[in-house]
Write a structure and sequence with these properties.
This protein is an alpha+beta fold. The chain is 45% helix and 20% strand. The protein has a single domain (2-66), classed as Winged helix-like DNA-binding domain superfamily/Winged helix DNA-binding domain (Arc Repressor Mutant, subunit A). It has a three-stranded antiparallel beta sheet. The longest helix has 13 residues, at 25-37. It is elongated, with a radius of gyration of 14 Å. It starts with a helix and ends in an 8-residue tail after the last helix.
Length: 74
């Protein structure tokens, strides 16, 4: 997810992630699909390419759930 956020416009295509991850396109696509289904990434299909970007609200909620010590709620 940090690689996606670090790309220009805070979005990345699978083809831009295979080399830095040193993984094959089908593997990267599968993991991005899982993250999208979990609501952590949003997808935008442009022609034959699919671009992914982080969903800020979901990421913030995940940070809160995983924070330690727990964040007290009002």
């Amino acid at each position: 997810m940090s690689l996606v956020m670090a790309h220009e416009g805070a979005e990345a295509c699978v083809c831009e992630l295979t080399e830095p991850l040193d993984l094959a396109q089908p593997t990267v696509s599968h993991h991005l699909k899982v993250l999208a289904e979990a609501g952590l990434l949003a997808r935008d299909k442009r022609g034959v390419w699919v671009y992914y970007r982080v969903v800020p609200e979901t990421l913030a909620a995940l940070r809160e759930v995983l924070s330690w010590p727990p964040v007290s709620r009002p």
